[in-house]
Structures are given as structure tokens and as C-alpha cells.
């Protein structure tokens, strides 16, 4: 279950690496669950109790439909980088005041990354005439982006209107700054006049980065949306690219994990599940939602190298009370198209690199949310 989720069921299937292999049967013996290395799909309900050592999660965990993962007060869970918890069933994490449930990154020694800012760089940030390649401004964190043309040895300002946050992340990494907390904007350069750029002989092609490249030169040239024969160049009064490289909000020995996601096995399920008739009580069947109470979520928000909210609910209405979300790489709590009343009480979101709480209701679904 990678960035999102997709459940594929093949039956029967070959159990051997051969076209003449044996076919599978309906019943499969469940693999034993290793509580010291939680991973994979949980196909049976389990309860995690407090212990001296934290529960460590080294790969994605998926709570399958019909399964309940119960976390007792005082439990500490540590997640490997980029690893997330996907809840298709139910999560019951009820802590108590003084015995909060803790979900945090694994503390580990970080690999020493060479500081590219100490080597000859092909990008720099400038405000007025003060640029980051000047020894007096080596720690510069923001400014208008300029690119060094190694052939003409000219610093060329960039005015690409589609310069993305992923591109800015690569620029910050190349300069030895924190890549995740990057921000990009566009604006005029007041120090330029009509003759400022007349001596620039060649302009770089626009690029599109994934955000994981080491240098801007490693990014692919952007070919879509370009007019045939158009020459990429900037005029003195163009809107130039402005990049800011922010500070890291986690200790150096920790890295961001993926966060918690609540959703249905099938998106169509949310349309009719509230109208299913119970033949015993003659009432509609109300889904049992997940619960997060007195839980501390720290260092989440980066799922498989993509920024994701620390707590994300799609078509679900989990009970979130007295939850502390801090030092995350993206938004704190995000709800997309909740189908019923949502309980968000006494929560605390702080030191995140995104918005605290976001709620999106799709067009025409407000009446369904109640």
C-alpha cells in the first residue's frame, strides 16, 4: 500500500513461478505478527499494550476492513522515515491524561551529507546586489534565483512562471539548505532597468523537477505547455522567481514519517453505507468511526517523499479529541468530504510546515455531512 491505497484480489493465482504451477486455494494461513517489527496488512484485530521499549514500524501498516487496531494508554510507537499508517478498518487509540499515546519518528544517526554550498554552485539567491555566492552572505536563506551559464559565465535570472515548489526544493538542497521547508513566489526586481539584461547571450530552458534531484541540472526539461519556436528569455520588468529556504523543525537525528490516513476500502461505500437497513433494530446502520484521544503525533507529514497531512481523513469522520500534532512536514489535520458530524475538540497543532486544520467539502455534499 504505497502513497495511497489499492486493494487487488486475484483468485485463483499461481503459487509457483511457472505457468504449470499449482493454483491457490481460498484459505490462506495468516502470517504470524511480529510486534517488534510491525509492517504489512493487519488482517486480524490486535491490541498494543504499554511496554518498556517502543513499538517500531519499519514499513507501511494497513488496517484492513473489518479489523480494529486498539492502542492502550501509554503506548509509544516509532515510525521509520516515509512510513505511514493506513486505516481501512478502525483505529481506537484512547490515551489518558498523563498516559498519552505517542507516535514519533525513530531516532537514528543521520548520514553525513556533503555541503554543496562549499563547492562551486550553479545557483544563487540575490536581493538587490547581495548574493549568496558572496562570502559575506553565504548563509542567505532567501532571494531571487539566478542560474550560472557555465559556457558564457553569466549569472542569469529566472522568470519561469511555472517554477514549482519541487523545483525550489532542489535549489535549496543544492545550496546546502533544508529542502523540505521551501517556498517559491514571483515578483519584480526593483534594481533592474531596461538595459540590465541586454548583455545576456543565452537563457536556460525551463525545467520540471520531482523534488528528489540533487541539482537543478538533473531535472528534466519541461516540454509540455510550451509554444513551438518560443524563445525563453526575461525582460527587465518580468516577474522573477523568488525562493526561500526555511529552517528544519525536527532534530538532526530524526526524519519525517508518513502520518495516519483514514478512508474506506471503496469510495462508493460512503454513498450508501448510511442508508443500509438493519433488519433487527429497523434502523439505518451507522458506521463505527475511529477514535484518537490523548495522542501525541510528532514528526509526521512526509509519505514516500510526498508531503501529506499528519492526520488525513477521506470520506471518514474520526473522533479526534485532545490530540497534539507538532513538528510536522505538512498540514496538521485534514478532512476531505466528511460524511457526518466531526468531533474536533481540544486539539493542539503547532510548529508545522503547513496549515493547522483544513476541511474540504466537495460540491453538493454539504447536505450529506449533516
From TrEMBL:
Keywords: Disulfide bond, Glycoprotein, Repeat, Signal. This is SRCR domain-containing protein. One of its GO terms (cellular component) is membrane. The keyword Hydrolase does not apply. It holds the Pfam family SRCR. PROSITE patterns: SRCR_2 (PS50287). Residues 123-246 form the SRCR domain. GO terms for biological process: cell-cell junction maintenance. InterPro entries: SJ_maturation_regulator, SRCR, SRCR-like_dom_sf. SMART domains: SR (SM00202). Disulfide bonds join 209-219.
Amino acid at each position: 500500500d504505497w502513497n495511497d491505497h489499492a486493494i487487488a484480489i486475484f483468485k485463483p493465482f499461481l503459487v509457483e513461478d511457472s505457468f504449470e504451477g499449482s493454483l491457490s486455494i481460498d484459505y490462506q494461513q495468516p502470517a504470524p505478527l511480529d510486534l517488534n517489527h510491525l509492517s504489512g496488512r493487519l488482517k486480524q484485530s490486535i491490541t498494543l499494550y504499554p511496554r518498556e521499549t517502543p513499538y517500531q514500524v519499519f514499513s507501511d501498516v494497513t488496517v484492513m476492513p473489518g479489523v480494529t487496531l486498539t492502542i492502550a494508554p501509554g503506548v509509544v510507537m516509532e515510525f521509520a522515515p516515509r512510513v505511514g499508517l493506513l486505516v481501512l478498518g478502525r483505529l481506537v487509540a484512547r490515551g489518558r491524561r498523563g498516559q498519552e499515546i505517542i507516535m514519533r519518528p525513530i531516532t537514528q544517526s543521520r548520514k553525513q551529507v556533503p555541503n554543496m554550498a562549499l563547492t562551486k554552485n550553479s545557483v544563487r539567491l540575490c536581493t538587490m546586489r547581495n548574493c549568496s555566492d558572496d562570502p559575506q552572505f553565504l548563509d542567505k536563506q532567501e532571494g531571487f534565483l539566478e542560474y550560472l551559464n557555465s559556457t558564457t559565465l553569466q549569472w542569469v535570472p529566472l522568470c519561469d512562471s511555472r517554477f514549482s515548489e519541487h523545483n525550489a526544493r532542489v535549489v535549496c538542497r543544492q545550496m546546502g539548505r533544508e529542502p523540505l521547508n521551501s517556498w517559491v513566489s514571483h515578483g519584480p526586481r526593483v534594481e533592474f532597468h531596461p538595459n540590465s539584461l541586454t548583455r545576456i547571450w543565452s537563457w536556460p530552458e525551463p525545467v520540471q523537477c520531482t523534488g528528489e534531484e540533487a541539482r537543478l541540472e538533473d531535472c528534466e526539461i519541461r516540454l509540455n505547455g510550451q509554444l513551438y519556436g518560443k524563445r525563453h528569455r526575461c525582460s527587465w520588468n518580468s516577474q522573477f522567481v523568488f525562493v526561500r529556504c526555511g529552517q528544519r523543525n525536527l532534530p538532526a537525528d530524526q526524519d519525517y514519517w508518513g502520518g495516519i490516513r483514514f478512508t474506506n476500502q471503496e469510495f462508493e461505500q460512503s454513498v450508501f453505507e448510511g442508508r443500509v437497513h438493519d433488519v433487527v433494530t429497523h434502523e439505518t446502520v451507522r458506521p463505527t468511526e475511529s477514535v484518537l484521544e490523548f495522542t501525541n503525533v510528532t514528526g509526521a507529514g512526509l509519505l514516500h517523499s510526498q508531503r501529506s497531512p499528519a492526520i488525513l481523513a477521506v470520506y471518514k469522520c474520526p473522533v479526534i479529541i485532545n490530540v497534539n500534532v507538532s513538528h510536522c512536514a505538512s498540514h496538521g489535520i485534514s478532512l476531505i468530504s466528511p460524511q457526518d458530524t466531526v468531533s474536533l475538540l481540544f486539539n493542539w497543532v503547532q510548529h508545522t510546515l503547513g496549515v493547522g486544520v483544513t476541511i474540504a467539502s466537495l460540491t453538493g455534499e454539504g447536505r450529506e455531512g449533516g
